[in-house]
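Human: Not sure, check this?
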Amino acid sequence: MKIVDQTHDQFADAFHRRYRKGTHFSTPVYRHVMKAGKMSLHELAAFSHLSELAGQVEADLEPSPGRIIKQVSDGDVVKYVMRLEDGLDIESVVIPMYRRHTLCVSSQVGCRMGCRFCRTGKMGLLRNLTAAEIVGQVFAARHQLGVGIRNVVFMGMGEPLDNLDNVIQAIRVLTDQRGLDIARRHITVSTVGLTAGIDRLARLDGATVNLAVSLNAPTDDIRSRLMPINRSISMAALQASLLGYPLARKSALFMEYVLIQGINDRQEHARALARYLAPMTAKLNLISYNPAPGSEWQPPSAKAYERFHAWLVAENVFVRRRGEKGGRIMAACGQLGGKNQLLDG
């Protein structure tokens, strides 16, 4: 019986259909597994006189799909590789923040968006992850690595809005207060700009999650060169969709801009970017390009990065420096994944 891809209520319904028992039994099971990460049920008070039932439920529970087969560290940044039941591998990254930890999760094995600066895109799309495989990354970080994950960002391998049904179900499970209990304001979904998915995510039941957009260019010409999606969804169409996205009070859209030497780093680019962002409530994360082996481009120098940052500030753009974390273990932005397998990090 599945549990890591079920909300409490979904699990309770399935539990009642199978065992004809109500929430007096299913709720402690759900909390015990999802909150505590324990699969042994005999210690639960609800089963104190029903040892046979406890054993049956234990035997029926499907464990979290996938297992951690490798983890590497770069300071406090930890990248771990999970092997899925079909033998494919995915990567997740634990990023320490001030008094909390953020987990960068994958939503696909590979990606079909083909962004030229992204290592994952070179894999192509092998398949979508199930909701259980997405939630399983958080489950593993908490209960196998022992990390208190507070924030979840869908910025790992894959395009989340290209696997939206499973991503939405994963969000519902992650935010269930009787389980992993991650607040929606602490969940961020990143996208290359799939407007149909953005519009659907805007209608998500309950509070919306944070939205991050991989923008990376000030004009259609440059963006189409970097990101094939822009050839079918222009920057104007993307902007129209973003203007309709509901934001929580004091919240903003997060725009990601990977700065690449000689491609999108001139003053005219900063000015055009400022004009594009002006109608939106947005915060720009400025990221120095993280090259992978065989990269065709180079990151900007430290001086060029600071110069571009200063130009944006002069244009009244709310811009935040994003320092590189995890580059030595290929865990930084755009570095996850490999052509055939993921153990070369």
User: Anything to note?
Assistant: The radius of gyration is 21 Å. The chain has a mean pLDDT of 92. DSSP finds ten helices and twelve strands in the chain. Residues 131-143 form the longest helix (13 residues).
